[in-house]
């Protein structure tokens, strides 16, 4: 699967009935592990941790968002995509288990 992904084949890499959710998750984890730097670079950790400690459930997340908006553009775009993707995964998971 990783080789097919790396070759940038125009057809879908994961095929229903052949690959399962674990294959997709494994491919995503491999991609994230092989990035040259973390999605959120190390120099942001201390500021985010400090901000996170001051935010309780239900409070405004603007301080965290302000820091994340200063990420390099590729990192910010990837983080946006990952958050949207994971939101959709939880939506479909919740829909599946609520049947």
Automatic annotation (TrEMBL):
Query: Which Gene Ontology terms describe the biological processes this protein takes part in?
Result: regulation of small GTPase mediated signal transduction; signal transduction
Please report the stretch or stretches of sequence annotated as the Rho-GAP domain: 1-99
Q: Which domain of life is it from?
A: Eukaryota
**UniProt entry tagged with the keyword Cytoplasm:** no
Q: Does the keyword Ubl conjugation apply?
A: no
Q: Which UniProt keywords apply?
A: GTPase activation
GO MF, one example: GTPase activator activity
PANTHER family per the record?
RHO-GAP DOMAIN-CONTAINING PROTEIN (PTHR15228:SF24), SPERMATHECAL PHYSIOLOGY VARIANT (PTHR15228)
- This protein is called Rho-GAP domain-containing protein
| Species, as recorded | Schistocephalus solidus
């Amino acid at each position: 699967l990783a080789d097919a992904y790396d070759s940038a084949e125009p057809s879908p890499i994961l095929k229903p009935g052949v690959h399962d959710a674990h294959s997709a998750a494994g491919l995503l984890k491999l991609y994230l592990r092989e990035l040259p730097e973390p999605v959120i670079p190390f120099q942001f950790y201390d500021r985010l941790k400090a901000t996170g400690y001051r935010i309780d459930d239900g409070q405004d997340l603007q301080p965290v968002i302000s820091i994340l908006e200063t990420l390099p553009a590729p990192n910010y775009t990837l983080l946006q995509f990952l958050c949207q993707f994971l939101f959709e995964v939880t939506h479909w998971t919740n829909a599946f288990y609520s049947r």
